Amino acid sequence: MTTLRSLRDLLAVVPYLLGFHPADSVVLLALRRREVIFQVRADLPPPAEVPDVSGQLAELVRRQDATSAVVLGYGTGASATPVVLGVRTAVEAVGVPVLDALRVADGRYWSYLCTEPSCCPPEGRPYDVSGSPAATEAVVAGYVALPSRAVLARRLDPVDGAARLALAEAASRADQRLLGLIERHPADPAGAVLRAGRDAVDDAVLRQRSGLRLDDDRVAWLSVVLVHLPVRDHAWESVGGDLGTHVSLWTEVLRRSPPELTVAPATLLSFAAWRAGEGALASIALSRALAADPEYEMARLMARALAGGLSPAEWSLAWARTTDRGSA
C-alpha cells in the first residue's frame, strides 16, 4: 500500500500504481486513511456509457472497505469532466466520501471540488512531481512508470526472428520428449507428466530467482507440460512469496512460448501480476490469455476476479477454503 502525504504525492504516484502514465483515462483510488489500498483505471467512455462505467467503478470501490476515494480524469475538459463528475456521484452514492475529483492534463490539474480562484484558478494549477517522497518510495520498491499502456503491452509481445525459429525447433524437441515420457510410463502416463511438470516448474522458478536465463529447451518443455492441468495448478499454487520472480518468469515464458501454448503462461502472469499489485499488467496478460482461448476456465476465473474488484487477500482466503474442502 502507498501512503499519500499531499496532492503532489497523489499526482506523482498514480503512474507508478498503474505501471504507466495514463492518458484519456479515468482513475479511481480507494483509500483507507492516507493509504491507497486499491486503484482502477478505465478508458474515458463516450457520454452514453458514463452512467454504467461510473456504477461499475463505484461498486469496485465499495468492495474495498475504503474510508474515502479520489477520482482523477486524464484528458480534455470535454471528455474528462462528465466522467469524473459521474464517477464522483456514483462513489458517494455507495457511501464512500470523495476527497477530491481532479482533471489532469499538460502538467496542470483542476479540482472540481474547489471553487476558490486563488487556490484553483480557471487555467489550472501547474504541478511538479520531481522529488515527491511517494514517487521515490515507489521507485525504491521496484515500481516503474512507462510512457503509456501501449508500451507496457509491448513488453509481452512474442519474440521474433531467429529467436522464434530456435524456439520452434525447441518446441518440436519438447513434443518428442513428452511422447517418450508417456511411452516409458504406460501404467501411469498422467502421473509421470505431473512429476516431470512439477520439476520443470520448480526448476524454472529457482533459476529465475537466481537470475539465470531459461534456455529454449526449458521454455519449450515448460510450455508443453503446462497443458497438463495438474501441472498448471502446481504452477498456480507456487505463485507467492517473491512475486517479482513469478511476474518476470511468466512474462518470459509467455513471450517465448509457441502461439498455441500461450494461454497457461498468460494466465499465470495475470495472476502473479495481480497479486503483486500490477493491475494493468494483469489485465493485459489476461487479454492475451482469453484471446488464445476464450473458454480457458482459469482465465475466466481471473476475469471474474478482476471485474469484481476481488482483492488478492480475499482470493487467498477463498483459495484456502477451497483447498481445505478439497482435502477434507
Helix run count: 14
Low-confidence stretches: 324-328
**What's the number of domains?**
2
State the major sheet: 7 strands, mixed
Per the CATH scheme, the topology name of the largest domain is Serine Threonine Protein Phosphatase 5, Tetratricopeptide repeat
The residue fraction in helices comes out at: 55-70%
Query: What series of H and E elements makes up the topology?
Result: EHEEHEHEEEHHHHHHHHHHH
In order across it, which strands form the biggest sheet?
1-3-2-4-5-6-7
Q: What is the CATH class designation of the largest domain?
A: Mainly Alpha
Which structural class should the secondary elements be placed in? alpha+beta
Q: Rounded to an integer, what's the Rg over CA atoms? A: 22 Å
